[in-house]
Specification:
- The chain is α+β, with helices and mostly antiparallel strands.
- The protein has three domains: 2-63, Arc Repressor Mutant, subunit A; 96-200, no CATH class; 255-439, no CATH class.
- It is built from eight helices and 29 strands.
- The chain has helices at 2-9, 14-20, 25-35, 54-63, 69-93, 134-138, 383-394, 404-417; strands spanning 10-11, 40-41, 50-53, 103-107, 110-114, 120-125, 145-146, 153-154, 158-161, 170-173, 187-190, 196-200, 206-208, 211-213, 217-225, 234-241, 246-252, 258-265, 268-274, 283-290, 295-301, 308-309, 328-331, 347-353, 357-362, 366-370, 376-381, 419-421, 426-428.
- Strands 19-20-21-23-28-29 form a six-stranded antiparallel beta sheet, with no helix packed on it.
- Residues 1-5 and 433-439 have low confidence and may be disordered.
């Protein structure tokens, strides 16, 4: 009976001892060295297996020191002078960390970078006469901004962001001059100390149909977006040919190398990014006009799309490009009677609404609303469209003024005129007719 009781009272490993004391193995081992925790070994060796008796542990717990005040006092006496020395080191010896770029101003041909306190950090001289004003760059700083005139948006031409994830802010800058006919533009990437990390020249000499177009391109804007959600943002650069219709979208990595490119035969006026199919990558949505079809368009590209161009024929097609690389390419109807700048129906803005609707806005004030499967659910009419329609009526270009009856008729007609590219040609897109208040 005594032997059995002793067996129940015995703990035969550090783990059992630690579990019994509701502590960790290393803590119990330290207690043995510092406070005499009653632990026995099967043979006289520190590396041998250990055992302990519960009764002895219980007795030790009752009598062990509750607080090692002596050691704490020694630690505090050491900590106070150490902290003082550490503070003196930072105050007198440690060099100050470099100030981070935060803001800017423009002076003559120079971009002047400022810190948070508006103090100058460094200057970048573009060497260009007639560099655009600070007000211009304020309207193209960091993010897309609504233009002061008209419904279009101003794309960024200057950003101060950490693009390479080194916790130091970099500067992305596109020099622009008042005289836009002088030369093309280039994207510069400068680190926080004004050193040029890389630069990007947009566009190149391209042949469409039988005509070769100049390599002179202007950057319309750029943005940073983490397409693959891997904490390494891509740089999306939008550029247009100086004289003719080709427009290039270039996808750069943080070191400035172009990963892929997309060409549209016509201008691009807006972009948006969203993970439409919830696969972890963000699709790229582009809106603008297509010169061959003389209509507005919406293109949707996968994050890892193959380099290529919009679906074109003849004069507007380039043999150098793979055609129809989009997930979707949608054409919109011409939507205002009579010949004017709004007649083409260019897409000028793209919105993602409530995480479930793609809204494409035309210059004339029409909103085409799709679900994430690209089914057209609704067309909405802004006041801008109503005014244009009534102006056309006054000129005798339409039969009746704008009204709820006209709205219903127009919506029905426009929905059947929306087309998408199916890899071979153009087909009518799926629609869901809805009788809703147009306003």
């Amino acid at each position: 009976m005594v032997a059995k009781e002793n067996q129940k009272d015995k703990l035969i490993s550090w783990k059992e001892i630690a579990d019994y004391l509701d502590s960790r193995v290393r803590t119990c081992q330290r207690w043995e060295k510092e406070f005499g925790l009653p632990v026995h070994r099967f043979i006289d060796s520190s590396k041998s297996r250990v055992f302990a008796y519960k009764k002895e542990l219980d007795k030790w717990l009752q009598s062990r020191p509750k607080d090692n005040k002596k050691n704490k006092l020694k630690f505090l006496l050491f900590l106070i002078p150490a902290a003082a020395l550490f503070g003196l080191y930072f105050l007198f010896f440690k060099p100050p960390s470099p100030s981070q770029p935060h803001d800017f101003t423009i002076q003559d041909s120079e971009l002047v970078i400022l810190n948070k306190k508006k103090k100058e950090l460094w200057r970048f001289d573009t060497g260009l006469r007639g560099l655009k004003s600070e007000e211009f760059y304020r309207n193209h700083f960091q993010v897309k901004r609504n233009a002061k005139k008209g419904p279009r948006r101003n794309m960024p031409l200057l950003m101060i962001r950490d693009i390479d994830q080194d916790k130091k802010k970099d500067v992305l800058f596109v020099p622009k001059t008042i005289d836009t006919t002088v030369e093309g533009s280039k994207l510069f990437c400068l680190d926080n100390k004004q050193r040029e990390m890389w630069s990007f020249d947009p566009g190149r000499e391209m042949t469409f149909g039988k005509k070769t177009y100049t390599s002179l391109y202007f950057i319309e804007g750029f943005t940073l977006i983490d397409l693959y959600q891997d904490q390494r943002p891509e740089i999306i650069v939008l550029s247009k040919n100086q004289y003719m219709f080709p427009t290039q979208v270039a996808v750069l990595n943080p070191t400035g190398n172009m990963q892929r490119e997309y060409w549209n035969s016509g201008r691009i006026y807006d972009y948006s990014f969203y993970d439409l199919d919830q696969d972890g990558d963000k699709e790229m949505l582009l809106g603008g006009c297509n010169n061959e079809y003389d209509k507005g368009f919406l293109a949707v590209l996968e994050a890892d799309f193959k380099s290529g161009g919009s679906p074109q024929t003849g004069y507007y097609k380039s043999a150098e490009l793979l055609q129809g690389v989009e997930k979707k390419y949608i054409l919109f109807p011409r939507n205002v009677a009579g010949k004017n700048e709004y007649n083409r129906g260019n897409i000028i803005r793209i919105y993602i609404i409530n995480d479930k609707i793609i809204s494409a806005e035309t210059k004339s004030g029409l909103y085409f609303e799709f679900d994430f499967n690209f089914v057209l659910n609704e067309i909405r009419f802004a006041d801008r469209y109503e005014n244009l329609h009534n102006q056309a009526f006054q000129k005798g270009l339409t039969k009746e003024p704008f009204s709820p009856q006209v709205t219903a008729k127009l919506k029905s007609e426009l929905m059947t005129q929306v087309l998408y590219y199916d890899g071979q040609g153009w087909a009518r897109i799926s629609v869901v007719a809805q009788n809703k208040d147009p306003h």
